[in-house]
Amino acid sequence: MQKKYQAIVIGSTGLVGKALVNQLCQDERYESITCLVRAPLANVDYHDPMQKIKALVIDFDALQDYQGYFSVDHVYCCLGTTLKSAGSKRAFRRVDFEFVHVCAQLARAQRAKSFVWISSLGADAKSKNFYLRVKGELENAILTMPQLSNAAAVRPPLLDGVRKEHRPGEAFALKVLKILGPIMKGPLEKYRPVRPAQVAHQMIGLQVF
């Protein structure tokens, strides 16, 4: 009999998070998907005919209190915000570094088989760009964490998807990159916008089965 896997998804309401949960629902290898969320999930966003999703509304400032839920095979972390949405560099770092780092620590404590999270193309701890520097610092912190089995980060470029919040700068960049797409080849190909489903698929592919 084929082994069935259990997963936990942190950040299941964003572009990649939704795509990921929907793909996990259709993946016969998984029997349950626990989603830690700030607010109840909108059922219309998810196709879950086998009723695999178990959503739990939590206080992210007290992530440690939910350590037991990380006792699964695979941990997926799709948490992320923007400087504008966060309101300050400190608040941004709280979400994009501290929360994700705590999730990695909890995955290690519960001996999850693997931990996969979303970083960013260009992540570099020495970058002058604050966003990329935080992402790079997080990669260094997680990938050097002792006794954390099979940790891996995906580094997507700009995401091509419909967001609830309006991001004018991102929308403009996306429009330009779509126009330039056909000539972005070779070293430039990695900068082409990607669909959230592509990132989700990559994340699943990085897990250990």
UniProtKB/TrEMBL annotation:
Cross-referenced SUPFAM superfamilies: NAD(P)-binding Rossmann-fold domains
Pfam families: NAD_binding_10
Occurrences of domain NAD(P)-binding (ranges): 11-130
Domain of life: Bacteria
Name of this chain's protein: NAD(P)H-binding protein
